[in-house]
Write a structure and sequence with these properties.
Layout: H1 7-10, H2 18-36, H3 40-44, H4 47-56, E1 63-67, H5 73-78, H6 114-128, E2 134-139, H7 140-143, H8 146-155, E3 162-168, H9 184-193, E4 197-203, H10 207-215, E5 223-229, H11 240-243, H12 254-267, E6 272-276, H13 286-291, E7 296-298, H14 303-315, E8 319-325, H15 326-329, H16 333-341, E9 348-352, H17 369-373, E10 380-384, H18 387-395, E11 402-406, E12 423-427, H19 430-440, E13 445-449, E14 451-452, E15 462-467, H20 473-478, E16 483-487, H21 498-505, H22 508-521
Parallel strand pairs: 1-2, 2-3, 3-5, 4-5, 6-7, 6-8, 8-9, 9-11, 10-11, 12-13, 12-15, 15-16
Antiparallel strand pairs: 10-14
Helix pairs in contact: 2-4, 4-10, 6-8, 14-16
Length: about 525
Amino acid sequence: MSLTCDLKKLKEYKISDLKNLCDDIRKDIISAVSVNGGHLASNLGTVELTVALDYVFDCPNDKIIFDVGHQCYTHKILTGRSLDNLRKSNGISGFPKCEESKYDCFNTGHASTALSVACGFMRANKLNGRTGKVISVIGDGSFGGGESFEALNDMNQIDYGCLIVLNDNEYTIDKTQGVIASSEENLKNYLKALNVEYLGTVDGHDVENLVKTFRCAYDDKKHRLIRAVTKKGYGFECAPSKSHSVSNAQIKTFGAAAGEELSDLLLSDDKNVFITAAMGSSFGIEKFAKSAPSRFIDVGICEQHAVTLAAAMAKEGFKPYVGIYSSFLQRSYDQILSDVSLQNLPVTFLIDRSGLVDGDGETHQGIYDIDFLINIPNMRLFSACDKSEFLKAIKENTNSPKAIRFSKYCIEGPNIPSENKKIRIYATSSVLKKFAFSLAESVSADVFSAYDLNKNLDDNYINVVLEDSVGGSYFKSLKLKNSLGYHVLKPLYRQADIDELISVNFNKDKILSDIEKLKTFCPR
């Protein structure tokens, strides 16, 4: 059984006993993540920090906001939640969830939101006459994001105290980028300009000193920041960048499967540049990054900047490839539309984690990209179901904006040739194509990848489209007569493994029944 605690019990601990508690929590996190998968390194690095915060402050009256949120495992243990079924449908989420516990004050999952949330809580407390404290726990990667600056710029107008705990571990998923993170002096000057009082640096793994520091750090009127220096993956031998997130799946990701070939393609032309928003390692292009470091550009957690940067480089004759997760790409919708597509610039978007994603819940589902990209002018949209399609789509010469979406896992399905059957099942992802083959076993059907989502299908067949988007925009764009379309359902299902997500959103028995009914009305 996983370790659990409660805040009342925690506050009864002697300060000298907290180190042993931290050691037990760290062991519990390693054990739970080894079974269930999850964000390992980020949570191991914040054990002492979180224990000290929950020990000193009065949660939930005092609001502790975690940014990005994936480092909340210790907080969950301390508030009575077992990690036994972490990230499972019958267990707890890997991110803060208000519906899960009163001790989670705000649902988070994407970077750089905590300071905006803090501004909202401060203003609400002041208007409501409440006196609760507001604490933002934010990583050095998230702190460099655009929304964090916007919030700090606004915070100066709010006459209410806020304590910002900067968890400085020098990493996002990859190494932290940017001038603020490059030196403590730069950080001091930045905060001074924004009227945030800098309280200095503390060892983020010295729980006793953290407790003493937090006890005297909060001010009811001032905005203050403490820099806690931590080590990502603390207490675990694996390198931080390799243990950020652990999966218990044995299937290769697209980056692992195609990264070498993608590197070679990028190296084949000096005009090729790869731009990413703190996600570079996911694409498996270490060879390119080492061979052409000036053309491998990591802008940090700044998706909007990444896209407009790519647009400008395309304008100057370069061939930008922008690598971003689907759930984070939506942050840059306006830049994709206005800066890239309306100017018809040849920027290629490599959209990882498209479609249904296991484990991380609603905030990390890549089920919106088809809906917002398919209607953007000049955009060519491809959906790669395997490695060969991924590489083929990259080589497609469009001379216009191009987006290639692909699932987390690269599932190489059976290579079954078309038999020109009456029914054709099309899938927009590798996981749905695998599901499509299971349908084809029950009906006489050929299975295809949708691949080119701007291309219409042959209306002489009964076409069944399985689409991992919430709006079904691909199917709607086809305007077919004898066809069936299925897409992700609303409301969204919470965290679960990929097979469960498919079974919830795509009812196999109903689909087979619908196909049989349509066959009787559409003899070929």
